[in-house]
Amino acid sequence: xxxxxxxxxxxxxxxxxxxxxxxxxxxxxxxxxxxxxxxxxxxxxxxxxxxxxxxxxxxxxxxxxxxxxxxxxxxxxxxxxxxxxxxxxxxxxxxxxxxxxxxxxxxxxxxxxxxxxxxxxxxxxxxxxxxxxxxxxxxxxxxxxxxxxxxxxxxxxxxxxxxxxxxxxxxxxx
Length: 174
Description:
Layout: H1 6-18, E1 20-21, E2 27-29, H2 31-34, H3 39-53, H4 59-78, H5 80-90, H6 98-107, E3 112-113, E4 125-127, E5 130-132, H7 143-156, H8 162-173
């Protein structure tokens, strides 16, 4: 039913309502009418199944979604900062999605820390139960530049001033 092939659906309706016989006239599938259900009721039942098929998944597909939903709900309940940081990271560079998830952080009372040249990484990170804004979500700043800024900071310590930042990043470009 999920494929909506009209010719196949018409054949299946006929089998469902009247049954199916082999070339010798032997009943293979009895159908609703042979089982005592009126043709009108059989058509109504088939129509309901066809309508359900418009939005239904097969069982294995539904089961897979259920497992993912359950695990996501568990993570959101017990590790909301990790889930939201990962979600925010999945939308790095998609600036219209970030505010929606920052609002969700606020709804869950998870503080979003501002970008900090001495603390932020290229992605969103968790810091003392809060989410530190990732430098990769700053508009018009490329990841190559951010990665070099973070690498310099990791290798040579925090930036002491704007001048220090400029000198150290200029040295890296050479």
